[in-house]
Amino acid sequence: MLKEIKEEELARSKWLAAAERMTERLERTGITQYVELQFDLKRMLWRSFLSGIARGLGYVIGFTVLGAFLLVVLRKLAETPLGQSIVGWLANWLQ
Description:
Keywords: Membrane, Transmembrane, Transmembrane helix. InterPro entries: DUF5665. Pfam families: DUF5665. This protein is mainly alpha-helical. The protein folds into two domains: 39 residues; 55 residues. It has four helices and no strands. The N and C termini lie far apart (92 Å).
């Protein structure tokens, strides 16, 4: 009987230790801030709004850089004889 009680206490202490480790890991991941954010509608909407603005600004900047790079490549390509025919075909196709 005493042996069974000690085994139960050992099992319980193992579970408690595992639960404490899991709690520490969850606290390190910042899950509590995430849960608090879910219940604060005003903060969540504000963060979503700012996130959308940042994403849109990133798209605009990325498209601008990509477009500028494409124009530079087309300009360099237009200096070659083969490139002139390709750029001419592309200009006609776009019209």
